[in-house]
Amino acid sequence: xxxxxxxxxxxxxxxxxxxxxxxxxxxxxxxxxxxxxxxxxxxxxxxxxxxxxxxxxxxxxxxxxxxxxxxxxxxxxxxxxxxxxxxxxxxxxxxxxxxxxxxxxxxxxxxxxxxxxxxxxxxxxxxxxxxxxxxxxxxxxxxxxxxxxxxxx
Length: 153
Fold this sequence. Notes:
Blueprint: H1 3-6, H2 16-40, H3 46-56, E1 63-64, H4 65-71, H5 79-88, E2 92-96, E3 104-108, H6 110-130, H7 135-152
Antiparallel strand pairs: 1-3, 2-3
Helix pairs in contact: 2-6, 3-5
């Protein structure tokens, strides 16, 4: 379905740029909603999932809260609170960093790794049903989005 039909747009967009921006925002929210629905059964938020993925990408190396914040997709997230919630679930561990009392190292636990593997299966199924694009089209989309952000920054 076209964007205009999805949002019940009754007048034409003022420009192709305006339509593209609205389309990106709408699509982002659509993806976010699909991910949220999928993660709900695991009692985890998109932001918590993002932290777990960041930690998983560390391959067992510890990372500080500030480094997590730099890598977060949602820059408005409270990474300390997210880590606390993941700690309570046993998915991460946290230790005070040697030589710096204000910093702590966070690492994915074995339980966290197993949890990610379980969630990953559902997330891959979710991604499969969300898009009819080919790999080549995904390459083009990624290049265009990267190009747009480069221009804006």
